[in-house]
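Archive entry. Fields below.
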Amino acid sequence: MAEAKKEQTTTHKIGIYLWIWGLLFVLSFFSYMVDWYNFQGLLRWSLILFFMFLKAGLIMAFFMHLFWERYALVNVLLWPMTAIACFVGLMVAEGKYTVFSRLFYFFVGGA
Amino acid sequence: MSDLNLDKLPGGFKGMSEDIGSDQTTFKGVNWGKAMMWIFLLSDTFVFSCFLVAYMKVRASVVEPWPYPSEVFALEMMGVPVPLLLIAIMTFVLITSSGTMALAVKYGYEKNRKMCGWFVLLTAIGGLTFVGMQAFEWSKLIFHDGVRPWANPFGAEQFGAFFFMITGFHGTHVSIGVIFLFIFARKVFRGDFDTGRRGYFTTMKSDYVAIEILGLYWHFVDLVWVFIFAFFYLW
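PREDICTED_STRUCTURE:
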């Protein structure tokens, strides 16, 4: 029974869930519109990333209740994401190098 | 143990340093199963990140043109190809099921057995619809368009391998989630979390926090789809 009492049982008003739900629909619709209107290049990528991170943030903060959790849990979960960001950075550099060497050796014919 | 009052503890980073330095449980007020689910989801995040990073890296380094997803995933509607139609519907279905899961968790907190059960069941049906549409999408690509992991008629050969790997792994997560949602809908309706009936496999008593833990998993599945939708279908 001690375990049961230790857990916090908070409930939130239904309105907040319905708002987030609606926002997720609107944001998904907007990101679909990016494709519909056929935006290209930097505009397309930045809009996709913007809507993606907004949706991901809303889901994590409110649907997964991270907004209401104590920092001890939130920080344990979010700091490891910086490792992924580093990995992305490394692979961007690696991808550029790979496509350069492929173009160079496949088409130019090497040194 | 009932003297733990979270409202009296300091919040923010000061609270974090005191929680960690308290020589007691670090995640105060968090059920152990919930903490474990979060740790699992963190590791799963790394798995999916590796898939998506690998995919983007390969896509950036092929010399042939990458298949244009807007055309590959278009559906004919009355003779007109509509880009990403099925994918858009799948996205909305998954978000809907995520919303119903959030409501199920809310009613679970309030120990409202019937509403919680109905919303878990609704979530399960939404997930099942998603898996069904994904099966349709796969069969169209495999039998109609002839996409294979090693070749496809649209462009760079690596496309098929990454498509089947990433959406397949996500679909597996959804399918496992649907199975658990149906099991837990039955458990909620039977009143397991009110009576403290012991689980068949775990032989442990549980309460409505189990619905919150299941909800975390389900929202994570939706979260991963947000990234797949952005990087695979829209990019």
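CURATOR_NOTE: Residues 80-111 of chain A form one domain.
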